[in-house]
Amino acid sequence: MTATSKTAPPETGFTQNGDTRGSARVTRETVSTVSVAILCVMLLLSARLINPALGSWSQVETVLVLGFFLVVLSFGQGVVILTGGLDLSLPATITMGGILATSWVGAGNPGEWYLLPGVLVACGLVGLATSAGVIWLRVPPFIMSMAMSIIVASGLLGYTRGTPRGAAPDAAVVLMKSHVFGLPTPVVALVIFAIAGWLFQSRTVYGRYLYAVGTNVDAARNAGVPVTLIRILPYVISAVCAGFVGIALVGYSNGATLRMGDDYLLPSIAAVVIGGSSILGGRGTFLGTVGGALLLTILGTIISALGLEFGLRTIIEGSIILFALLVLREELFQKLRSFGR
Amino acid sequence: MTEVQLQQPAFHDSRPGLVTRLLTGAGLIVMVYVLLYVLYAVQQPKALTSYSIAALINNTAPLALAAAGQAIIVISRGFDLSVAGVISICNVVLAVYPLEGPGGAAVSVLICLAIGAAVGVMNGYLVAVLKLQSIAATLATMIICQGIALVILKAPGGSVAEWISYEMTDRLWGVIPVSGLVLSAVLLIWMVLRRTSFGISLYAIGADESAAALSGINTTRVRLLAHVVAGCAYGLAGFMLSAQTATGNPSAGTPLLMLTFAAVALGGTSLSGGRGGIFATMAGAATLTLLQKVLFSAGIASFYTGMFQGAVLILAVVFSAFLVRLGDRK
Amino acid sequence: MFDNQPEHSIGGTGADRAALSAAGLHKAYGATVALEHADISLVAGKVHALLGENGAGKSTLVRILTGAVAPDAGGMMLNGKPYAPHSLLDARTRKVATAFQELSLIPNLSVAQNLLLPNLPRAFASMVSTRRTLEAGAEILARHGLDRIDPAAEVGRLALADRQRIEITRAIDNAGQVLILDEPTASLAETDWLFDQIRKATQRGVAVLYISHRLAEVREICTEATVLRNGTTIASVDLGDASDGDIFEMMVGRKFAHQRKPRVMRSASGEAARLAVMDLCGHDLQDMSFELRPGEILGVAALEGQGQQELFRMLVGIERPHSGRIEVDGAPVKFSGPRDALKIGSGIAYLPEERKTEGIFSGLSAATNVVLPVMGQAARGILISHGREISVAQAAADRVEMNPRYLSFPIGDLSGGNQQKALIARTLATGAQTLLLFDPSRGVDVGTKQSIYAAIRAFADDGGAVLFYSSELPEIVQLADRCLALYGGRITRRFKGAEITEQSLVAAMLGHVTPEITEGVLA
């Protein structure tokens, strides 16, 4: 017989049984963050065996530059997932950021200091529409964001008549191609972003409220958490992050395409899940997600270095998500804890 | 005996009203379809010929079958994203390994059903036995399936057996479309299925899984079986789609993914589980297909069909949730 | 397969005549020992009570007896044969059936289908016969005095009390040997029907295990009782020989002080009411008017579902009134939700009904759970300081006598009592001067209850105002300075001070003050 939620764990807690447990717990967050970090290093080192060029410092730099896109995206996706949602509109918002950056702003535009933020605002509005649908129309998040994705993509297709034009704005090129302290700027940006994102998610009042809302919306409302405000922002944050990545991508490859966002949706979800977050919301840290994003990027680099075909790469990606889902199940951690007593 | 309890104020009536039942059933979507068809017939007088009716049903069949499978999962309170992957695999298999003649077609159908069932077993195992959240688990299987489809066929190409692409889109005696017969057969199977213990259990676990378990329903088995049945429906959808397109495309299923949810929601099936049906879902799928035709014949640029589809999806979900609330209040 | 009618259905306690006996049951979930060593023995034709505080292991024992979980050690015998059910269904095939406290009915199926699951009558092609299902359902309903319920009705549309009756009926119908009733009166206003059914079952020779917090009820229907404490069977007693005091002592492990503490109300009539409600209507409420003054504890007494949920939810803005006025500190207000309620005037903090689903955030620490509404206080600049979070939480935890070492644990790992303490601490931590507590001691043990009562009294002594609803009348009698009785969405009577007795409250809660009924219910 299946043990279901109603035949739940016992009420008996510490009060009765002599209180033998210490507070040293095996949390899924620590386990996954540490193991993902170890895996990253191991992959990088073993990649050397395959091809001596792979483990070099310049290769690490390339991985970090490529990883920058995924880290930013999965921050947005992670915030949405933390509140129990799912953002499937990333491909469309990335493309929107890229296409608006090239067609509105373009190269050598002196107004880019206000136009580029304008692009981000436009992307944010898409996120706002998703939030509105999820919160007020009560459409399930994945359906709402899927619908928004299709609407935005179709709008972009109509807007560009199928062929995007224009070149990357100067600021985007500078961000992606320059160096600071002898390191590529994206690498420095990645480190700053990772720390800021982690502090935002784990140490601010808003971040804490995200966890509360993701764990239980009703309880959060009863406790006096401004639930609606908390629930609006994640999709906006996610859309702005995606728009930013769109701009960064055109800075990197100097041009936008209508499909430039397609390959980022699944890795963004995978990075969050591999990083130890619960797909149901309320659990996970951004550091874990950063690890997940880097792991996926390293893996992608190795796969393409090995010359594996795209289909195999997709299969591996799917299997990794599945593996992470299986490994990070709650029951497994309950078992781990009981061994450690 | 003093029956104090009877004096308690009664807040609930025990059965829904007739109007509500008509609205929450398939009645509404069928009415919408008929109205849309009238509109279509006004635009395109040819619409009433048996040829274009058959063409319309042919266009509808893949989505209707895929949505039927999706509806089974949604009724049991779940979501299945793997529909896109199964259809893609079936399509590329039929395009890469065409089997001619009626015998070949029969084998092809069986292959498609087997592919669907295999993916269904995997989904069912992950969701029912390992208790993974259905969106997450089926997302992973969808990605893996897409990968497999890409491995089988790298880029669009290949061609489906001629027998399949001709006969399955043909009309019997020049009147009855074969695809319509396939849909009717599936509907018939469903009508039997929903009256079996499995069918009743499906609705039960959708409404309250733990209560169903406490009532003695083997929820794991029902959920697993639901995924297998749904997988078979996707396989059949892949078969009919291949007959339609006559060629292979490793991402053939992707455009159908969102539409299956739209069809389920248009059919009034509650996305929160426990309510809805296959006939209404098929009617929802038919409406979506017809809507595309109407938009096209109204001269709207194909660039913007996505906008309409997205908007219809949102409206359909809002609408089906509204119907459920209406049904609950009465 | 088994003999339903043991020859010696009337007789004393004795393991040799036990229909179902269990010895040395042990069950641990991870590091938590839920059941240490439980023994119980049910005799055919008798009603046996299972008593114990929350967390004593009652629910685990019930789960083992019903086959929902398997014990780690110990064994069970059913009519002299080894009994080790591996599922609920397996237990039911051996004629052991259970009515669960959280009803196990499926809302979108009919009454008849619910009664017959999982074995619905078949027609051809393994389809289920609707007609025969309805007939069989109607027959079962008639046999249990429920012919007024339509077997074709969807269960979700029935009133809660009727759903509980269906749950009980199904269990009785399946219980050829042993019937387990877990809190069967949670939403029943009277026990006549239930006790009639139980008596009919015992006459058939069924052994009944009756789990309830209500001792008066237990004394009426049960003849013997097993008391659990800390997962161990303390004693099995003949209820005729044990006084209430004895039983409390066995349950709690110490003498029980049960007196109403006289409290001097600080409230001066000149002060404005903290909360005033005028002609409030909406949902099921009609013309609700009352005032809550500083320093006052106002109780609400009502049967299940008489509008108390709606009242509390309206007072914090979760639901909107259709008409009427709410005033806080003399000024009319309109809340948009609990957050608003916290901020307006001197503030209103709300304790919701269901701890698990509406109260706690199980993955977050107890400290975060306590300080959540005032998270800003735990922050230094824009970042939260862990030390400050703990110290803010500790100040509130001390007021409910909660051990501070639990503060850094995830609240989901704590016992129900500590979770409830944390939730009360949360309302205190908000600094609101008015508390709305819905069933503040729901499902917690006696010791925790006293800590919670003390915290509520101390809060009122300091000039705070408290409005609380309780499902337990003794709680209202012990705690309330004044009391409102609700029935059918109206205030039927108001009580003050010494007028608050269980007898007078019950009469008002039933919506009419007729002496016979009062006695009938209290008997």
From TrEMBL, chain B:
Membrane-topology descriptor: Multi-pass membrane protein
Coiled-coil parts of chain: none
The keyword Membrane is assigned to this record: yes
Keyword terms: Cell membrane, Membrane, Transmembrane, Transmembrane helix
Organism ancestry: Bacteria, Pseudomonadati, Pseudomonadota, Alphaproteobacteria, Rhodobacterales
Record field: transmembrane: 21-42, 48-69, 81-99, 105-128, 135-153, 173-193, 224-246, 252-271, 307-326
Principal place of residence: membrane
Entries under InterPro entries matching the protein: ABC_transp_permease
Lineage: superkingdom: Bacteria
Name the UniProt record assigns to this protein: Ribose ABC transport system, permease protein RbsC
Pfam families linked: BPD_transp_2
Ubl conjugation as UniProt keyword: no
Species, as recorded: Limimaricola cinnabarinus LL-001
GO molecular function, one term: transmembrane transporter activity
Compartments in which it is found: Cell membrane
PANTHER family the record matches: ABC TRANSPORTER PERMEASE PROTEIN YPHD-RELATED-RELATED, RIBOSE IMPORT PERMEASE PROTEIN RBSC
GO CC, alphabetical: plasma membrane
TrEMBL record, chain C:
Domain of life: Bacteria
Segments forming domain ABC transporter: 20-255, 259-513
Entry annotated with the keyword Nucleotide-binding: yes
Any one Gene Ontology molecular-function term assigned to this protein's record: ATP hydrolysis activity
Protein name per Swiss-Prot or TrEMBL: Ribose ABC transport system, ATP-binding protein RbsA
SMART domains xrefs: AAA
Cited Pfam families: ABC_tran
UniProt keywords, alphabetically: ATP-binding, Cell membrane, Membrane, Nucleotide-binding, Repeat, Sugar transport, Translocase, Transport
Species assigned in the record: Limimaricola cinnabarinus LL-001
PROSITE patterns assigned to the protein according to its UniProt record, in alphabetical order: ABC_TRANSPORTER_1 (PS00211), ABC_TRANSPORTER_2 (PS50893)
Keyword rRNA processing: no
CDD domains associated with the record: ABC_Carb_Monos_I, ABC_Carb_Monos_II
